[in-house]
């Protein structure tokens, strides 16, 4: 099969498009003919070697977790799927297993769902990791109608889904983004749009019931200042602050800092699919690349100013 793979940790100098052996499905697995893959920030980190303690250092390494395609073969003992089914899902690249940036993918059936009628392969591939992180982050922030919410990094993969979901929940959304993306953030449904530098955050003069930090690295001191008493800050890259500062935050200021992690249970997928079908949530895909040009997709994801999701078609 043709695949896009790395031969070492690094950038385009260690990335290749070429032939690798076809995989075959094991017990409880499906062999999927991949049609579309979307990139996530984790793919870039894995490629660079930032997460090597999770992924291991075995090469060649095929990246890409979010995929959509057609079942080509059903593995031994695998029930519930048939050859020809349209499927999508998220394969775990953290365990060192081959990812989806290839013509063929073997994937555990528990990681796979049917593509709902009315959803394209590209849309399906764009949804999993980012939308599931956004929806669970908003649950963590306890967002309900009328809550004042700040979404930091509102126009990337996680952020652009979070703005749409929060709007659908009835929150009053303030989005942060770079100046070029302000119009895009408004189109997604943000009520207010500000820059993400400290002076922009402060000069906006608002306080929030919750902050969903989709970018992940807002200074905790800024988060504390921007939250109302009793407010919640949830970060996609949460690192627990020291015991003393979190004690003061919680018990003196009544504010909580926590993690906005992805959850990928069937009910989470169902909620995302329902919102998509009700037209409350759509993946914005401005940039498509073919598999042989996947290196350019990584380049854009890492160094460009992309909006929404980047999709590689196979
Ligand atoms: N914990 C989990 O389960 C989980 C799951 C998924 C993702 N994540 C993490 O979440 C983060 C975001 O992922 P993503 O897929 O949304 O990435 P992405 O598509 O690259 O988006 C990142 C966004 O951050 C914005 N940004 C850049 N510098 C910023 C700053 N200084 N302050 C605020 N925003 C800034 C970018 O805006 P501009 O381009 O306009 O500058 C962009 O919109 C990644 O670190 C990823 O690893 C965690």
Task: Characterise the protein shown here.
This protein is α/β, with parallel strands linked by helices and 314 residues long. Strand 9 (148-152), helix 5 and strand 10 (172-176) form a beta-alpha-beta unit. The longest helix has 13 residues, at 128-140. The protein is globular, with a radius of gyration of 20 Å. The model has no long low-confidence stretch (mean pLDDT 95). Helix 4 (128-140) crosses helix 5 (157-169). It has helices at residues 41-48, 52-55, 121-126, 128-140, 157-169, 182-188, 198-203, 220-226, 243-252, 266-277, 294-303, and strands spanning 2-6, 15-19, 29-38, 61-62, 66-74, 86-90, 104-108, 112-114, 148-152, 172-176, 192-194, 208-213, 227-235, 256-259, 285-290, 309-313. The termini are close together. Strands 3, 5, 6, 7, 8, 15 and 16 form a seven-stranded mixed beta sheet that branches. A six-stranded parallel beta sheet has the order 11-10-9-12-13-14. A three-stranded antiparallel beta sheet has the order 2-1-4, with no helix packed on it. The chain binds NADP nicotinamide-adenine-dinucleotide phosphate. NADP nicotinamide-adenine-dinucleotide phosphate (NAP) binds at residues 40-42, 129-130, 133, 152-153, 155-159, 176-178, 181, 196, 214-216, 236-237, 261-262, 305.
CATH homologous superfamily title of the largest domain: Medium-chain alcohol dehydrogenases, catalytic domain
CATH top level of the largest domain? Alpha Beta
The CATH topology name of the largest domain reads Quinone Oxidoreductase, Chain A, domain 1
Total strands: 16
Put simply, the count of helices is: 11
Strand fraction: 25-35%
**Could you say which structural class the secondary elements and strand pairing correspond to?**
alpha/beta
